[in-house]
Amino acid sequence: MVNEKFSYKVINGITAYRIVAAPVMLLLIFTGEQDIFKWLLPVSFFTDAIDGFLARKYKVASIFGAKLDSIGDDLTVLAGIVGLFVFKFEFIKSEILVIGVLLALLAVQNVLALIRYGKISSYHTYLAKIAALLQGIFLILSFHFPEPVYALFYIASVITIMDLAEEIILVFLLPQWKMNVKGLYWVLKTKSKNITSIFF
User: Fold this and answer.
1) Helix (H, G, I), strand (E, B) or coil at 135
2) What is the CA radius of gyration of the chain?
3) Per-residue pLDDT reduced to its tens digit, 102-138
4) What is the C-alpha to C-alpha distance for residues 194 and 187, in angstroms, rounded to an integer?
5) pTM
C-alpha cells in the first residue's frame, strides 16, 4: 500500500513538472532564451511519455492524474506553439491556415467537453497518443534545426485533425466523462454489443 501511494505521488509529481515548466518556458521565450528553451521542451515531452507508462505499469492510474496529464500536455504544446510564433514566425505565416484549423478544432472540442461534462476531456485515445508523439517530435526538431520539417508538420496536422474530429464525436457519444478511451471504433463496438444484448 505504501509503495502504491509512493508511486502515485511520484508519477503525479512527474506530470506536475510539465505544468510548472510551462510558464518557465514561456518566460524563456519572451526573454529570447531560445537555447535554454529548446532543451527544456524535450524534457517536458519526455515526462509526458514516461508518466502514463509508469501509471499503467504500477496500476495507479486515476481521474486526478488523467486531468493533470491533459493539462500538462496542453500547456507543453502551447509553450511549443508560442515558441514557434516568437522564434519561427515566418513558418507560422506560411502555415497560418492549417494552424488556424487546428486551433479552431481544439477550441470546439474543449468547449463541447466543458458544456457536456463541466471539464475538459481526458480520453487519451490511440489517435491522441500518436498525434501527441508527432507534435512533440515536430516541435522539438523545429527548435534544433534551422527550419521546421514541413513534411512532419503536415503528417502531424492530419493526424491531429483526425484525433480532434474523433474526440468531438466522442463528446456526443459519451454522456459521462471517461478517461483512457481507446477510440471511436471501440466505443461504437461496445454500444453495438449493448444493443445486441438487449434484443437477444
Assistant:
1) helix
2) 18
3) 999 999 999 999 999 999 888 989 999 999 999 999 9
4) 11
5) 0.85
